[in-house]
Amino acid sequence: MTGKTSSAKSAKVARKANAEPVAAQPKLLSGGNPQIAKGYGDAPVQAYIAAMPDWKRDMGRRIDALVVRTVPGVCKAVKWNSPFYGIEGEGWFLSFHCFTKKAATTMKSSTSSSKEATAGSPSQLIDAKIKELSDWRGETLARIRRLIKQADPDVVEEWKWRGVPVWSHAGIVCTGETYKNVVKMTFAKGASLEDPTGLFNSSLEGNTRRAIDIPEGDTLDEEALKALFRAAVALNESSARRR
Questions:
Q1: Mean pLDDT for the chain overall
Q2: How far is CA 155 from CA 9, 49, 132, 158, in A?
């Protein structure tokens, strides 16, 4: 009898030892703002949103989804117990914070925006950006631009997020972002496109976007890129007809 009791207690202890630890809920600071450790990427932002109280949580989810949908390749972080959204090399443009009776967003303003507004059309701004880069990145961006126009003569050039060239047709097709080591083409609906030649090599984990990172000296398959761009345009047009 004693042996059975001992075995039962041992099994119970073993079950407790193997149980998954319960994650502590983030502390809510003054005004109900979640206390989340500083971190970069999507995970800390999602942890913050999940800890937002009551109706503010739904608001946080809507803001996050809107930014992700509108700004391909957006960077995320939590700093000073607030989510931040930005563009690599351009800085942070949006954050939000919980207060007792509200959740407030903060948009970063920049004097460069007013300068850009008077600098010319989006096409002229892209011209200026290519000239300003004056290295392999400018040459690559100009090459991408040429291929895009060959693929779709009706494409619309835009200038968004304080310095990012965007090509649209029935909605955003792709961006042309320039970084230190790569020129990145982010396709807004890339996850829904067939990519038989394997051009997509970045942002492969999401359900919406896909990107092509083009480093210095890369030999880009021009015909495949034009075919991919035309497919993205066709997808945008198909989505527009269903609305």
A1: 84
A2: 72, 37, 23, 10
